[in-house]
Design goal:
By secondary structure, the chain is of the alpha/beta class. It folds into two domains: 231 residues, 3-Layer(bba) Sandwich (FAD/NAD(P)-binding domain); 121 residues, 2-Layer Sandwich (D-Amino Acid Oxidase, Chain A, domain 2), CATH 3.30.9. It is built from 13 helices and 21 strands. Strands 7-6-15-16-17-14-18-21 form an eight-stranded mixed sheet. The chain has a six-stranded mixed sheet with strand order 9-3-2-13-20-19. α1 runs parallel beside α6. The protein is globular, with a radius of gyration of 21 Å. The structure holds adenosine-5-diphosphoribose and P-hydroxybenzoic acid. Adenosine-5-diphosphoribose binds next to α1 and α10. The site of adenosine-5-diphosphoribose has 28 residues, from α1 and α10.
């Protein structure tokens, strides 16, 4: 069975949904093909810090009502090391910028709701997605849906199908170069219906390993512990998690921790990954399909949003004027910003985690890095400018 659209979007995670929303608002027809069910996509718990550029994009895409109401504006973060907790005034050191705490799961829900309202076309539980003729003017996608073989003809394909998707795999090896670092540890996350320990996030450097105190709302907290790769969540009942978190927090802060039963816990590995280029003919990679950052800098969703911003603008330009210049420039333009976020996330990861093979010299350098950070307005400005998000030019 044949269908036709202007832009085929592979993957209905945050990247694909936001791309679809923006394109449709601008009168560009599109269809999302998603492998999973909607409930599965909505069940994934991920990071929760959004930059001003992402906020602006969600607002302009008409999906920001709940975020405007429930999102928590944060003007700073705390970093704890050597038993002390110190504040980074993001607002002051970034020249007046802030970030917002609003969960990716919430953003995904809001996007689905917005897509429903506009009767956006999303096919769930598709399988065997294959991309064809992507270097021609008339690419097409074949897939299985409801036990039928289907074909979707299009002018462009947005590969929004995450790290394990089919889009990047469609690039010939000869044109694709990938850069990767896998870190020798993972994060164990716990979500609980308890008030957050503090008004702001606390990033913790401790000899047992990194910890992070985050939140989803005034009544819901999100905590993370650095754990070895291959850790089984079942080895971490709630009591053990809370106990270890308290060990890693400065004493006074640990006393303020309110614990409760977990509602979600999972182990996630840490990786930095970039694919170059992000386009091949009329196929464009967006979000996790093209790059992965470790969660330490909270950049994953924000990078997905900036990719969507650049690509949607380039597609609009093409459909309005027939000019392909911006589309041809998409890969370079997106990659410039991506690499800066990759560098920042790598640096935050290095500064805050315990590296098993670091040795005493490495530990001294790490402590000195943290001491230097809080002794230098220049260093604080570097952190703040990156944390709140580099400009979307
Ligand atoms: N066919 C169709 N859909 C697919 C396929 C495929 N072959 N492979 C993967 N998908 C779907 C997945 O089921 C998933 O819903 O593509 C979607 C990709 O979504 P994400 O992995 O969430 O990636 P993205 O939308 O780019 O979101 C980036 O996710 O990991 C975080 O930190 C990251 O916040 C960032 C965000
Ligand atoms: C989160 O709340 O899940 C979160 C916040 C900040 C990070 C990573 C994760 O750096």
């Amino acid at each position: 069975m044949g269908m036709q659209t202007q832009v085929a979007i592979i993957g209905g995670g945050p990247s694909g949904l936001l791309m679809s929303q923006i394109l449709q608002l601008n009168g560009i027809d599109n269809v999302i093909l998603e492998r999973q069910t909607r409930d599965y996509v909505l069940g994934r718990v991920r990071a929760g810090i959004i930059e001003q550029g992402t906020i602006d994009l969600l607002r302009s895409a008409d999906v920001a009502d709940r975020m405007n109401r429930d999102g928590l504006v944060h003007e700073g973060i705390d970093i704890a090391f050597a038993g002390e907790r110190q504040r980074v005034d993001l607002h002051k050191y970034s020249g007046g910028k802030t970030v917002m705490v609003y969960g990716q799961t919430e953003i995904t829900e809001d996007l689905y709701e917005a897509r429903d309202k506009m009767v956006g076309k999303i096919l769930h539980e598709v399988s065997d997605v294959e991309l064809h003729e992507v270097t021609s003017q008339n690419p097409y996608v074949t897939f299985k849906h409801e036990n039928q073989e289907k074909r979707l003809d299009c002018q462009f394909i947005a590969g929004c199908d995450g790290f394990h998707g089919v889009s990047r795999a469609t690039f010939p090896c000869s044109i694709l170069k990938t850069y990767e670092r896998v870190y020798p540890f993972a994060w164990l996350g716990l979500l609980s219906e308890t008030p957050p320990i503090s008004d702001e996030l606390i990033y913790v450097n401790h000899k047992n390993g990194f910890a992070l105190c985050s939140m989803r709302s005034e009544t819901r907290s999100r905590y993370y512990l650095q754990v070895p790769v291959g850790t089984d969540v079942n080895d971490w009942p709630d009591e053990r998690f809370w106990e270890e978190l308290k060990v890693r927090l400065p004493d006074q802060t640990a006393n303020e921790l309110i614990t409760g039963p977990s509602i979600e816990n999972a182990v996630a590995p840490l990786r930095s990954f970039v694919a170059e280029p992000l386009s091949h003919g009329r196929l464009f990679l967006v979000g996790d399909a093209g790059h992965i950052v470790p969660p330490t800098g909270a950049k994953g969703l924000n990078l997905a949003a900036s990719d969507v911003y650049y690509l949607s603008r380039a597609l609009l330009e093409f459909f309005q004027s027939g000019d392909e210049t911006a589309l041809k420039g998409y890969s370079n333009r997106a990659l410039q910003r991506i690499w800066k976020a990759v560098r920042f996330s790598w640096w935050m990861t290095l500064m805050l985690h315990k590296f098993p093979d670091d040795g005493e010299f490495g530990e001294k350098i790490q402590q000195t890095e943290l001491e230097y950070l809080f002794s230098s307005e220049a260093a604080l400005s570097v952190l703040a400018e990156n944390y709140v998000g580099l400009p979307l030019d």
